[in-house]
Amino acid sequence: MPPKTPLGPPYARGAMAFVLAGGRGSRLRELTDRRAKPAVYFGGKSRIIDFALSNALNSGIRRIGVATQYKAHSLLRHLQRGWNFFRAERNESFDLLPASQRVSEGAWYLGTADAVYQNIDIIEDYAPRHIVVLAGDHIYKMDYEQMLAQHVESGADVTIGCLEVERSEASAFGVMHVDERDRVIAFLEKPADPPGMPGKPDQALASMGIYVFDTPFLFELLRKDAEDPNSSHDFGHDIIPQIVKGGKAVAHHFSRSCVRSSSEKEPYWRDVGTVDAYFEANLDLTDFVPALDLYDQNWPISTFAEMVPPAKFIHNEDGRRGQAVSSLVSGGCVVSGACVTESLLFTGVRVNSYTEVERAVVLPYVDIGRSCRLKNVVVDRGVKIPPKLVVGEDPELDAQRFRRTKKGVCLITQSMIDRL
């Protein structure tokens, strides 16, 4: 038997993070045709899942499992390349847990709870005292040690990470109805009339999909749930409502454990589940004082860093000057006589002469031809933009050729370019 993990603070050293990273992410449209949502690129050089993983690492958690399912190759490759530094001799572990039909030949992961249930034997080998269940598809910085401490001190059966949102907007979330001591007295899935918070009637508490459990308690629940033919085997739909009804569920306010540098004024959390939300969250980073500080060395966002040369800006003549303003430009990029404004260029992007790029999220290894004008676009990895292409000026034409959102953002893929 492995040695028991330590009891008492810091609690993170005795915990295991279990990251749910198997989602389809269908609302991101063609961005998830070849990759799971957690593997989608974000912030100039990272992937979405890097935020949950970095939070766990920075919080002091050294045992992590990642459950994958749909279109997992890109995600698995990224995790193998960028997160392979955990060492067993230091009581660390990083397990990739694809849906491999380990319980039954016909059973993939049936739901979020089932993803944990199917890996109970692997988790038991590490004997963690607590399980921190995380969604792998949100953008935020959070110290899970604070949530673990509240869980232990409150004696809760489950502690649920919650975000304060405007009550008028809470109908899109699972909402926690809490008393004055933050005990959850009702869980409401996308209610038409969300309950307000004690003392803050215009605010509601929305679930972040983050849960802390004592390990033995969780395993007992999961085994019972697995035997229930009427269950959807999901934390939000089955496990959490059951605990709220018959046990002790406590809400943890994100504002208490949100990690902020001196420049970050408000707690930052984003679900980048639509093309518009994804576009806006990336462009948030180009602000003079961004709402999310990626430059905070006290809470770094780790990722796989490709070995590429520095970014390069060439040509310096009127009408053909390589420049970028209010933009994030990654290594390996070449801005050759082009102007880039309020944009993110991921690794290895090339922007050729006389081209103007404005408010664009350009994924790795895109080549943008000469004399293009691109505005309000997301360009998928590896796309070759032909010379003189104009996007963002004629809404009707854009909608005929590309995936255009309600807010006017155009998603461009290579197959769309090939049809021109």
Automatic annotation (TrEMBL):
The feature of type site (Could play a key role in the communication between the regulatory and the substrate sites) is located at Q69, W108
Domain (Glucose-1-phosphate adenylyltransferase/Bifunctional protein GlmU-like C-terminal hexapeptide): residue spans on this chain: 309-412
**Key words, A-Z:** ATP-binding, Carbohydrate metabolism, Glycogen biosynthesis, Glycogen metabolism, Nucleotide-binding, Nucleotidyltransferase, Transferase
Official protein name in the record: Glucose-1-phosphate adenylyltransferase
**Could you give a single Gene Ontology term from the biological process aspect?**
glycogen biosynthetic process
Family designation: Belongs to the bacterial/plant glucose-1-phosphate adenylyltransferase family.
Q: Does the keyword Nucleotide-binding apply?
A: yes
On subunit structure and binding partners, the annotation says: Homotetramer.
Which Enzyme Commission numbers does its entry carry? 2.7.7.27
Q: Which reaction does it catalyse?
A: alpha-D-glucose 1-phosphate + ATP + H(+) = ADP-alpha-D-glucose + diphosphate
Metabolic or biological pathway: Glycan biosynthesis; glycogen biosynthesis
Question: What is the source species?
Answer: Hansschlegelia beijingensis
> Record's InterPro entries?
ADP-Glc_PPase (IPR011831), ADP_Glu_pyroP_CS (IPR005836), GlgC_bac (IPR023049), GlmU/GlgC-like_hexapep (IPR056818), NTP_transferase_dom (IPR005835), Nucleotide-diphossugar_trans (IPR029044), Trimer_LpxA-like_sf (IPR011004)
Q: Which GO terms describe its molecular function?
A: ATP binding; glucose-1-phosphate adenylyltransferase activity
Q: Which residues bind alpha-D-glucose 1-phosphate?
A: Y109, G174, E189, K190, S207
Domain of life the protein comes from: Bacteria
Q: Does the keyword Transferase apply?
A: yes
Functional description taken from the UniProt entry: Involved in the biosynthesis of ADP-glucose, a building block required for the elongation reactions to produce glycogen. Catalyzes the reaction between ATP and alpha-D-glucose 1-phosphate (G1P) to produce pyrophosphate and ADP-Glc.
Q: Where do the Nucleotidyl transferase domain residues begin and end? A: 17-286
